[in-house]
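[INFO] parsing input record for Glycosyltransferase RgtA/B/C/D-like domain-containing protein
[DEBUG] input buffer:
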Amino acid sequence: MLISSFSLWLLIWSRLGNSQIIIPAEVALSGFFLIRYFNGKKIRDLILSLLTASFGWYTYPQTFILPVFIFIFLLTYQFLRLKFSPASRQSSLALVVFFIGLLPMLFIIKNQAKGMAGNFGQSGYVGSKVLPVLKMKKGEFFSKLSVNMAKTLLMFNVRGDNSFRVNVSKAPQLDRISGMLLLIGLVSLIRNHRRLVTIFILLTLIVLLLPSLSPAIPDIEIPNNARTIGIIPSVYLLVSLGLWQLFLVFKKLTGRKFASVSGAILLSMTVYLNLNNYFMTYAHGLPENNLGPSRYIAEFLDKKITTNYTLYFAECCWGNYGQPEPKGIAYSLKKSRPVDYSRLITGCSDLDYFPLAIVTRHEDKFKNEFTACISGARQMKIYSRDGIFISNLYLLEE
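[DEBUG] output buffer:
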């Protein structure tokens, strides 16, 4: 956990604030309770593992596979390792818990406005990445699948996600030290005598990669560190195992003291590489050198405009990659105020509540469109800390 907490992969997702950041915790907890069930055979751990995995139905499409995988692995274990009578009882319990977790999801699908024609339809978010596979020829399917698999496996040490938003564009998902430790840990795991745990971890790595491998996914989206975020616990478990194996080797060759110092140095270098990538390399790769215009507008409003002013937008998205966006400004506000981010106002007739503040970039365009009502408006200009002009703000009392 210590190594993963400094991981660039997790740091970026925690910065984004996207709900996918919870996926590694879901996977880690469900796996933890499952392994504890293997060791102690306590029914409580069986239930906790399945219930934790059930959150996968309600997180993101790539975690739909998590509760199914945990459930099938449990059933397989019970009938292969337990006597028939306890296996039957515990399997029945597992089935009940599985369907309790699934039941709300069935109601969600049923109550969707478009039913199965929504997210799961041909043009839906999930359907568009799965259904086209059914129309592919066998050769095309296996060719694309093998290419996607190769790209995804190489994402750790060779070339990672292309998107500047979730990675240092095209850089490996792991730093060089962690990448080396991952390989050492993988070899060590395969040689491990705890066969059941080894099989579970290896299957977790394979199964949770499947949502990112669909041949229907566009080439530019492969590899994808969002759809593979569920393997983070297993990846960093192997990285930690690799570090432990090196410690044991150094301890045998040079003694405990030197091994401890070497391990601490390796860990420190890993932390440095990840933090440097996050605060320097990644930040400078963001749009407009990580200017963050939404943040400056929100800070200005919080500091200088009282919260009784309703916020409107006459323009948005004039910067690189659609910045600043009305929702981004609204979500960055620390003080609560009325905000209409559902539309861009185009004239005086759109102004419903006073007093109000209007965000716009181009002064001349705004004055031409709002001539009838801005004669008494107070104009303010918003700048970054470095003096870069961000936006105009017009205040109207009535």
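[INFO] Residues 293-396 form one domain.
[INFO] shutting down worker
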